[in-house]
Write a structure and sequence with these properties.
heterodimer, A: mainly alpha, globular, B: alpha/beta, Rossmann fold, Alpha-Beta Plaits, 6-stranded mixed β-sheet, 4-stranded antiparallel β-sheet, 11 helices, 14 strands, about 35% helix, about 30% strand, elongated
Chain lengths: ~260, ~300
Amino acid sequence: MVSFVNSFQAELLKTKRTIAFWMVISGAFFTPVIVTTARLIQHQTLPKLYASPEFWISHWRSSWESMALFLLPLGGIMITSLITQLEYRNNTWKQLHTLPLSFTTIFISKLSIIIVMVLAYLLLFNVGIYLSAVIPYLIVGDVPYPRLNAPFHFFLQQDLYYFVDCLPIIALQYLLSLHYKNFLVPTGIGFLLWVGSLASLSWKYGYFVPYTYDMYTYLKSGVVNKAVIPEVNIHWLAILYFIAFTMCNYVLYLTKNAKG
Amino acid sequence: MSCLETIDLVHHYSPIEKVLDHVNIQVEEGSIYGFLGPNGAGKTTTLKLILGLLKRQQGSITVFGRPFESNRVAILKKIGSLVETPSLYGHLTAYENLSVLRKVYQCPKENIHTALDVVGLSHTGGKKAGQFSLGMKQRLSIAMALLNDPSLLILDEPTNGLDPNGMIEIRELLRQLNKNTGVTIIISSHLLAEIEKLVTDVGIIHKGRIMFQGALQELKMKQQQLQSIALQTSNNVMATEVISKMRLTSHIENNRVILPALIKDQIALLNRELVNIGVDVYEIRHVSNDLESIFMDIINN
């Protein structure tokens, strides 16, 4: 456990000033900035919008649209690939593998840092959602503060679902990034799977594609006509995929002949 | 006592390509072991196997008296290494690169300053390692290898990319470290001349096989044994007959008669004999094989 904590701290330090680090921040605030700007431009519609009892739900949904369909899957692909490929790009696998750490510790601490980065991505996005609701209220006069309190329990549950649904993306991208030296291979495959996921949303077996779950979670709570919503529990499917990909990755990593 | 021992290491990258062929090396504690061989001889493969970067296929590796694989983490705690090209995080500063390793080794913070001072990089401040010259990267890699005060230092061609002055500084640094801390050092190179002033023991590998292993002194004795005299005469065949009558062996090579090293009186006697039978002597030259030519002789044997 002590060596895991040490290794995790080392991994955390490595993310300093990386593209993945800046991507977490810029990706998380991208949609909230767009929403805020659009509202400030169309400020005359705000009093009515903010007075609605459905304000928070509608604000949440409009914020999550681009996130669930594009930014979260693509962010998951990029963050995972960038963090893992850091070692290939710097020729540091051999350095990492000659440190007094078990291969299991190295594997888990790298996966943990990716998960933490994705969690930070979601957390900052939530902060962005809140700010994009509050900033127009503070700047534009005559805009009332949303009448009902934000349904935090619902938001938290949705966040959890989106995170769980993102896990297969992290696991498969981690597997690809760990085994292919060329950065274009994991990102290219990830991008193709994302496009395939968008295309398979209207297919009745689309839920077998592991990159679709965030999209389904968003679509099933509203715009159902765009997709065939599966009747199975997609969150459990996401967890199963995550475990399967991670186990497969772990075995491949341990049995790899050359580690540097 | 042996610090590192490999027994019958065999390694293939493909079924037909045997990269290492029963490699046995033995490194004594406190020694500086020069691991020599031309490019592609198997030096890096051997060092990677010792560090666990390649999966062992055949043979055994013992470090600090313990089998490597079953004690990997404990052994790596006491090893510092630099394998081939520098292994650094280009987006981090020299200090941050060392901090990453310090988190794992859990060594005191002062070790970072000491290591940077030792390799002369304490002035680099906020400059990213990616902006360093190759020589600076090499120095930082050496600092990283020294960070945990290792008992065994494995350096694969550590002076690559360094200018002559840098090479001398690194050699001096390693010599001082060995002298002051007793650290055992394995240093690989394809140039004997580069490390002959540093090492105490030598292992020479060629085409995956160990061709020589022993103290540097043994290699130097070989050098003395291989010293010779070269004669250039008007009739080399007659000259070899005269030499044979003096109960000495000789052969003709590149229009010169080559015979073992002689004392001054013998050289004078030989010269007189040759002149007496009418053979003109144009040149008598003492041929001193340097260690590099011994090395070449061993690998070309």
